[in-house]
Design goal:
This protein is α+β, with helices and mostly antiparallel strands. It has five domains: 202 residues, Multidrug efflux transporter AcrB transmembrane fold (Up-down Bundle), CATH 1.20.1640; 58 residues, Alpha-Beta Plaits, CATH 3.30.70; 112 residues, Gyrase A, domain 2 (2-Layer Sandwich); 195 residues, Up-down Bundle (Multidrug efflux transporter AcrB transmembrane fold), CATH 1.20.1640; 77 residues, Alpha-Beta Plaits (2-Layer Sandwich), CATH 3.30.70.100. It has 21 helices and 17 strands. The strands form four sheets. Strands 3-4-2-12-17-14-16-15 form an eight-stranded antiparallel sheet. Strands 6-5-9-10 form a four-stranded antiparallel sheet, covered by helices on one side. Strands 7-8-11 form a three-stranded antiparallel sheet. A hairpin with a 5-residue loop joins strand 15 and strand 16. The longest helix has 54 residues.
């Protein structure tokens, strides 16, 4: 590729980058700004989701067929309710997840989708005349004072209904239903008799009316249920969430500001530590962010609050790739090579490391997507998109600009590539350490923290959230700070033994948590009581969640399964790439170490363990191994180049030579997360905190645990060979 062509291409990249950013911020013509173009989840836009479990013993193909039929019926119902952009999906093997954006009456929406809606017309002896499957249409009507439902049957239903009315008129049946006479037909909805009118004449034409003292809302909902059809199986609500749009919108705005602050700090840090190379990284990072956002919009990916956390994390990973490349270029220059040759060699040597580090994280993200719940899937999908784009920007875009610098007369100097004129690298850590010699100290530190954490957990117990224990959360805006005791007194009659805490600015909001999973009617009663006591309205109910006790057990099982699958996948990949099981086992041992340390940390400090925590742990499984892969890659390289130096020296040199990069990448990832953790809502913070802890732990284990473990595995192998040789000699004697 000629230099002139590179210049044109680089100029085009710059134009595209700044144009994409301009459009992202301000929009242009028919193109909306990124904020308006993206599709947001319920936690941002507001709405309702409910997860219902089918009550059936069916398995295999029969269960799959039943669930698909159930999904189709519910989908039809939601459409009949006139809800736009709703989503009805099968979750797991026997659950249905329904998402209803912008639902005005959340409780009514939850009730509507889960009702069996089994409409039947029966004679006095209980025999079936016609059922809801023959209902062609159902509409509400009014006689001026009461609302009713007008039904229209299909041709077969009209014939059956006509025959049924004839039987009733002739009084040829023996009544077995209490309160009914032989000349009556009962209209039954969900096994409840609505009305049982006398038949005055044979009704033909396939039309009739259902009256039951309905309000307009009740009649409308019932008509929609009938039009939607009957469910083939009973459903039980196991999880639900109601989110006010105001909370999500506020969290989104704060996330944008926090993200901008974090990214701005990264831009500055890259220039401070890497000079002109850092500026190139910033340009690549700007393109990365623009590509990421518009990829989300193009592929119609739903952005959730956890997805924002994934975006921020992926930015740190994008920086990581650039830092790996820069470090290798600096090493080549320090080895006495020319700038141009160093850039070529640096990219060549860094490529495998970048790919290995990103692919291991990608493996964890894929597992997370396959095993996780819907919200976690969004997090994983966002992370996967970020990984793919980061590889492109680091390997292609960064290389384009740096090669231009290397080929220019003005900038092809050591100082522009982070190297002093005397050929020594510019770095913030100059001292070398003997990591292998002191490895047992770090083993003891890790073991001590883990033991203390699990001991505290054994005595005090883990602080599980309601998504693990089962229970209900209701968040309301009281518009003023009210004493917790007053709220406790207001809900005292329900004997809930709730945990009540303040939330929001000025402590004007309260969050009520119970260990009992309240159904929609019970939640409505609690909300009604709060409204009566504190003068609030339905609009002041900002959020509510309900988790059945079975959900928590499933989350734990899925988490263990995901960690196991991800670990096996990464183990296989590492063994394949490094041609040694010792590298793979050491890396996976480090992953287990990191997970145990984070769990111990949560046990010691009593942080809430919930679904976001599990997602963050699974992300950590992939992310924490990044630093380990980089160091292992260097150990493999040094072992091949400097065989006479010995294993201990090669490992120490490998850790020391990558130490600045390891600390830098962890630092940049933390920097972008800290503003997010401080400024945004607890829902994002629940993802961010374990990730931040995990990043620190992952950095620590890569340096002080994984590489020493690899050393011990290698030495044990050598000792084993020596022992075998001694035994052979003794046998010969």
């Amino acid at each position: 590729m000629s230099q002139s062509f590179k210049r044109v291409l680089a100029g085009l990249v710059l134009i595209i980058t700044f144009f994409a950013w301009y459009v992202s911020i301000f929009g242009i013509g028919s193109m909306n700004s990124a904020k308006d173009a993206l599709k947001y989840g319920l936690d941002i836009n507001g709405g309702v989701y409910v997860v219902m479990e089918a009550q059936t013993d069916l398995e295999g193909e029969e269960l799959r067929s039943l669930m698909e039929q159930t999904r189709a019926v519910i989908d039809n119902r939601v459409n009949q309710m006139g809800v736009a952009e709703s989503s009805v999906t099968i979750e797991g093997s026997d659950r249905i997840r329904v998402e209803i954006p912008g639902a005005e009456d959340a409780d009514e929406a939850i009730k509507a989708v889960g009702k069996t809606a089994q409409l039947k017309f029966v004679l006095a002896d209980g025999s079936l005349v016609v059922d809801g499957s023959h209902v062609k249409d159902a509409q509400i009507a009014t006689d001026g004072s009461h609302y009713k439902i007008e039904l229209e049957f299909d041709s077969e239903g009209a014939s059956l209904f006509e025959e049924g009315t004839r039987t009733a008129l002739n009084k040829t049946v023996t009544p077995s239903i209490e309160g009914m006479t032989a000349d009556q037909i009962a209209i039954v909805l969900d096994d409840e008799i609505i009305v049982h009118p006398n038949v005055q004449q044979v009704i033909s034409g396939g039309q009739c009316e259902v009256t039951g003292g309905y309000t307009k809302e009740e009649a409308s909902t019932t008509a929609a249920l009938i039009r939607g059809g009957a469910l083939p199986v009973d459903l039980v609500e196991v999880q639900s969430s109601v989110q006010a749009a105001s909370i999500g919108a506020d969290a989104l705005d704060k996330s944008i500001i926090a993200g901008a602050i974090g990214i701005g700090i990264i831009f500055i840090l890259m220039i401070v530590f890497y000079g002109l190379l850092g500026l190139v990284a910033d340009i690549a990072l700007m393109l990365y962010i623009a590509m990421f956002i518009w990829s989300m919009s193009l592929f119609n990916v739903v952005l959730t609050l956890p997805g924002i956390a994934a975006l921020i994390l992926s930015i740190g990973m994008a920086v990581d790739a650039n830092v790996i490349i820069f470090a290798r270029i600096k090493e080549e220059i320090c080895a006495g090579k020319s700038i141009r040759v160093s850039v070529q060699a640096g990219f060549k040597n860094a490529l495998s490391t970048v790919l290995d580090a990103q692919i291991t994280t990608l493996i964890a993200a894929v597992v997370l997507y396959e095993v996780g719940t819907t919200s976690v899937k969004g997090f994983a999908l966002t992370l996967m998109i970020g990984i793919i784009i980061s590889i492109f920007t680091a390997v292609i875009i960064t290389q384009l600009f740096i090669s231009l610098l290397a080929e220019s007369k003005k900038f092809s100097k050591n100082k522009y590539f982070g190297v002093n004129e005397d050929g020594t690298p510019k770095q913030f850590l100059h001292k070398t350490f003997s990591f292998i010699r002191h490895r047992k100290v770090f083993y003891i530190i890790s073991a001590g923290i883990i033991i203390i954490g699990f001991a505290v957990t054994f005595v005090r117990g883990m602080n599980y959230g309601i998504d693990f224990t089962g229970g209900t959360m209701i968040q309301v805006d009281l518009h003023e700070q009210v004493a917790i005791s007053e709220v406790e007194e207001a809900v005292k009659e329900y004997d809930l033994n709730p945990s009540i805490i303040y939330s929001g600015e000025g402590n004007e909001q309260v969050v009520i948590k119970t260990i009992e999973a309240l159904d929609t009617d019970q939640r409505a009663e609690v909300v009604k009581t709060l409204e009566e006591n504190f003068g609030i309205t339905d609009e002041d109910v900002l959020a509510s969640e309900q988790f059945g006790p079975s959900v928590g057990d499933e989350l734990k099982l899925n988490a263990v399964k995901a960690v196991a699958i991800a670990s096996v996948g990464m183990l296989i990949y590492i063994i394949f790439r490094f041609k040694s099981w010792k590298y793979g086992l050491s890396a996976i041992a480090g992953v287990v170490h990191d997970v145990l340390l984070v769990i111990a940390f949560y046990g010691i400090f009593g942080f809430t363990v919930n679904n976001p925590f599990i997602a963050a742990i699974l992300t950590l499984v992939g992310y924490s191994i990044n630093d380990t892969i980089v160091i292992f890659d260097r150990i493999r390289e040094n072992t091949g180049l400097y065989r006479k130096a010995g294993l201990e020296a090669n490992i120490d040199n490998s850790i020391n030579s990558t130490l600045n990069r390891t600390i830098m990448t962890s630092l940049t990832t933390l920097v972008v997360m800290i503003p997010l953790c401080i400024m945004v809502s607890s829902s994002i913070r629940e993802f961010i905190i374990p990730l931040m802890v995990g990043i620190i732990v992952g950095c620590y284990s890569s340096i002080f645990v994984c590489s020493p473990l690899y050393y011990d595995l290698c030495k044990s192998g050598e000792e084993s060979k020596y022992t075998k040789q001694i035994k052979r000699k003794n046998k010969k004697k």
